[in-house]
Amino acid sequence: MNLKGKSFLKLLDFSPAEIEGLIDLAAELKAKKKAGIAHDVCRGKNIALIFEKTSTRTRCSFEVAGHDLGMGVTYLDPSGSQIGKKESIADTARVLGRMFDGIEYRGFEQERVEELAKYAGVPVWNGLTNEFHPTQILADFLTIKEKFGKLKGIKLVYMGDARYNMGNSLMVGCAKLGLDFVACAPEKYFPDKALIAECEKLAAESGASLSFETEPRSAVENADVIYTDVWVSMGEPVEVWEERINELGAYQVNAKLMAGAKDTAVFMHCLPAFHDLKTSVGREMGEKFGRTEMEVTDEVFESAQSIVFDEAENRMHTIKAVMAATLADI
Question: N or C end of the chain, less CB within 10 A?
């Protein structure tokens, strides 16, 4: 695996061997961190983190990973950058590329991170766009591999809105690495047909299968992983909550649904999750619609089957692997 100098924008840009190599490197770096073994292979380098959409896990993962690798880290929140406002994306990229060795972007359209990478002259990493979330998938797959000892042949069922970054990226990752992917939702929430067609070609090469179900009980039969995400994505208006609750309520991950999967099945979620009323949004939506839980019940979220916090920790280790592989001689 030789990824030095390459940007990490979407999994479609990487071969199965390269993706597996990043997961293996993440496991190696995780073991070193747990053992207290220094791995500051990027000492003397500096990175910029552009966050047009804020995040707890992504920011902390990049910052801690950067420091562990020996780098200086500069965080630019929505008020700390003029990108797309007073300064074009191309101009921002060319300025930051002269000052930093790598740039992370978390924000809106995929075109924005692609343009940053085109002009920066240094590796650019996608921390999340509307269309793709590749660092999350690396963390998910590292977590699955830790749990089951393998990836190929694992059946992963994604419950809910599969049209955006998580549904897209999980489908691509499964197609690349040979996992069986199921999207379960009303048909209007299935991924884009062109992306499905591209993934079907990849699945034919890897031995993966892709299927799209509208009936939750049949979808989760023999599932190893049941995955979900919030019903309303960051940046969408609050008004869509009612529509999503009405249309996706039947796809909530609850104990009955989990019981329909394998006894060894696990629950995954990229977080944050509306599994109780302990957040301002959760309380607001709970009061408005009379619900105490949204996409997942608290019973499942807090159960022994839930591996969401292993998954969250692995964001740091896999992001570290991406930065190390693209900046250092690994």
Answer: N
- Which residues are CB-contacts of 97 (< 8 A; sequence separation ≥ 6)? 103, 119, 120, 121, 122
> Which one from 68, 101, 180, 229 is the annotated catalytic residue?
229
pLDDT for position 285: 86
Beta partners for 255? Answer: none
Which of 312, 328, 329 lies closest to 71 in space, CA to CA?
A: 328
pLDDT band at 84 (very low <50, low <70, confident <90, very high): low
Sign of torsion, CA 246 216 230 14?
A: negative
Is 102 within 8 Å of 320 (Cβ atoms)? no
Q: 54 CB contacts (<8 Å, ≥6 apart)? A: 77, 78
Contact 173, 19 (CB under 8 A): yes
Q: How far apart are CA 92 and CA 116, in angstroms?
A: 8
Averaged pLDDT for residues 89-95: 95
The contacts of residue 302 (CB under 8 Å, 6+ apart) are 275
The pTM assigned to this predicted structure is: 0.96
Catalytic residue among 68, 136, 174, 244: 136
* Catalytic option among 59, 133, 244, 275: 133
Segment (H or E) for 327: helix 308-327
> Is 229 a residue of the active site?
yes
